[in-house]
């Protein structure tokens, strides 16, 4: 049982380039989340999904897009990367609204030069 | 929206001592308060949580207390060990409503000196 898997683990982009971060969970969880982690700022919610085909904005959604075409996958896209998007990105999932525990992936370290 | 403040940002203790991390929240409607531990190079993992209808919860060496009136909650680690060294995050949420995501504090880096 792999849990929550994020790919890639590391990536370096140049300003203006685009990329997609993939999150996959094998626990049949309804809810999936993308957070970014920056020093001294904790974890901030970018976007989330409450089920296949649905997405919603979090605290810091600007510059990002997401898709949840399949229940097990949640994709985070950067259309035109900026240095301010240098961060560690974490995907998380949980089974349902009444099951509170979040399961996190191991993170993606992204640097935008 | 909810705002969670966490203190201190760093904490160094000697092995065997106790460690206390404190958080305050802004939304009096929040009713769920988990604590996550993040080890180096890994994602956060839930270590303990508490709901607003409970004032204290313990699990072996860790405990969480909640003061709803003052809107603050704390993590207590007793008899600290080197493997307790990590970054700890508090969070707050309102369950069973339209808000379906946690708001996290800024994190506390705990260093346990052998």
Average pLDDT of chain B, to the nearest integer? 92
Query: Rounded to an integer, what's the Rg of chain B over CA atoms?
Result: 14 Å
Structural category of chain B is: mainly beta
- Give the overall shape of chain A: globular
Structure annotation, total helices of chain A: 0
Q: Which range does the strand content of chain A fall in?
A: over 45%
- Head-to-tail CA distance between termini of chain B: 41 Å
Provide mean pLDDT of chain A, rounded.
93
| Number of helices, counting only DSSP H or I runs of 4 residues or more of chain B | 0
Largest sheet: number of strands, sense, barrel closure of chain B: 6 strands, mixed
List keywords for this structure.
heterodimer, A: 113 residues, mainly beta, seven-stranded mixed sheet, four-stranded antiparallel sheet, 50% strand, globular, B: 114 residues, six-stranded mixed sheet, 0% helix
Structural summary, described in words:
The complex is a heterodimer of chains A (113) and B (114). With 113 residues, chain A is an all-beta fold. Helices cover 0% and strands 50% of the residues of chain A. In chain A, strands 2, 4, 5, 6, 9, 10 and 11 form a seven-stranded mixed beta sheet that branches. A four-stranded antiparallel beta sheet of chain A has the order 1-3-8-7, with no helix packed on it. In chain A, a hairpin with a 3-residue loop joins β4 and β5. Chain A is globular, with a radius of gyration of 13 Å. The relative contact order of chain A is 0.33. The model of chain A has no long low-confidence stretch (mean pLDDT 93). Chain B is mainly β. Helices cover 0% and strands 54% of the residues of chain B. Chain B contains no helices and eleven strands. In chain B, the strands form two sheets. In chain B, strands 2, 4, 5, 9, 10 and 11 form a six-stranded mixed beta sheet that branches. In chain B, a hairpin with a 6-residue loop joins β4 and β5. Chain B is globular. The mean pLDDT of chain B is 92. The chains are: A mainly beta (113), B mainly beta (114). Chains A and B meet through β4 and β5 of A and β4, β5 and β10 of B.
